[in-house]
Amino acid sequence: MNSYIDNLKWRYATKKFDTSKKVSQKDLEILLEATSLSASSYGLQPYEILVIEDAALRNKLQPAAWGQSQITEASHLIVLANQSNFGEELVDDYLENVSETRGIPSNDLQGYSDFMKSKLMPLSESAKATWTARQTYIALGNLLSAAADLKIDTCPMEGFDSAQFNEILGLSKKGLNAAVLVAIGYRSQEDQTQHYKKVRKNKESLITFI
Question: Where in this chain does the record put each Nitroreductase domain (predicted)?
């Protein structure tokens, strides 16, 4: 069996972490690089990645996540925060990076700039927020897969009050919104859910060839 598939079968949404084990700085950097290499629409990456290590801060966040133990027991807590709104600067900053990275004169990118702005700028503020939040889930998928490949456990989490997270982390004043959380670390042997058989739709009902 392909080792990548084996690792995906190995992973599960870890409910109880071993508090004595920490993800090494080396492995953490690999996870963050994998996440940063995620695809995003137009390549714009309209989000930020927050790594919450501070124990006191995580204790403060836990009540805003329905008291779930993963918030404080995991080695690290990662918050994927989408831009809640944006203007032309999102495109301008990206194309400035393209120009510098690829050595392309800015003028040569004007057509692409105009195209992106014509598609994105007319969106309502709520539509922009929805679009940017969707981009975080692409990054989430990469993070989960990369962690499985390193045999690092994860628990993606939507069960939290984003408004409270935004207030505690000061995200709103930065134009950001906590979209999804990922607790990372190593499973506790007391977590019985690790022994459950993985349940997924069969390929016949999930996949259609046309």
Answer: 8-186
pLDDT 10s digits, 117-171: 999 999 999 999 999 999 999 999 999 999 999 999 999 999 999 999 999 999 9
Give φ, ψ of 157 to 5 degrees: -135, 125
Q: Token digits for 67?
A: 């008291």
Backbone angles phi, psi at 99, to 5 degrees: -60, -45
Let me know if residue 117 belongs to a domain.
no
Q: Residues 8, 10, 22, 45: what is their CA dihedral angle, to the nearest 10 degrees?
A: 10
Task: Provide the CATH number for the domain around residue 72.
Answer: 3.40.109.10
Beta bridge partners of 83: 176
C-alpha–C-alpha distance, residues 35 and 14, integer Å: 19
Under DSSP, is residue 83 helix (H, G, I), strand (E, B) or coil? strand
Residue 162's closest CA among 64, 63, 62?
A: 64
